[in-house]
Design a protein that fits this description.
By secondary structure, the protein is α+β, with helices and mostly antiparallel strands. It is 18% helix and 36% strand. Strands 1, 2, 3, 4, 5, 6, 7 and 8 form an eight-stranded mixed β-sheet that branches. A hairpin with a 5-residue loop joins strand 6 and strand 7. The radius of gyration is 15 Å and the shape is globular. The protein starts with a strand and ends with a helix. The model has no long low-confidence stretch (mean pLDDT 89).
Length: 153
């Protein structure tokens, strides 16, 4: 088995404030396509691998623009989490850190131009259980909603 260490990524919890009476923000997730070698067909954050000489914040901003064609506002660092992934054929493991940012998106959904993956959705914490979310990112979402809203998902 091949082990890939130091696979550091910058990802983000992109929030949309609901227009309904709910006071809980929805999170934007990407559905990976079936050909993706890591977590295929699962839901995950937008983001990507940190390039040499690039800060995690700059990586997150670049990836959101590349993958969605949008810019996000009020970006703050939430936390950094270690992660381990096993690819779909079970022959590679990658380990690293996920630098997680929180950002707001207040634009129209029609302005989002998906350039990677099989789809995207804004999901409330109550809808997350209906979608297969990558394990280590579901852990992050549980922390996020518990710490910011007092919600256990």
């Amino acid at each position: 088995m091949q082990i890939i260490n130091n696979a550091d990524f910058a990802t983000g919890i992109i929030l949309r404030h609901p227009t309904t009476s709910s006071s809980v923000d929805e999170v934007l997730l990407q559905k990976k396509d079936s050909g993706y070698p890591w977590s295929k067909s699962e839901w995950c954050f937008f983001g990507g691998k940190i390039e040499k000489e690039e800060s995690p914040l700059r990586t997150f901003q670049r990836e959101v623009l590349e993958e969605l064609g949008i810019e996000v506002k009020d970006v703050t660092h939430f936390a950094t989490y270690p992660f381990t992934d096993l690819n779909v054929d079970g022959k590679k493991v990658r380990r690293g850190n996920s630098h997680v940012f929180v950002a707001d998106y207040d634009g129209q959904i029609s302005n989002i131009k998906l350039r990677e993956g099989a789809g995207f959705a804004f999901l409330s914490p109550y809808e997350l259980a209906k979608h297969p979310v990558v394990d280590h990112e579901m852990y992050i979402l549980r922390d996020f909603y518990r710490l910011n809203y007092g919600i256990n998902i």
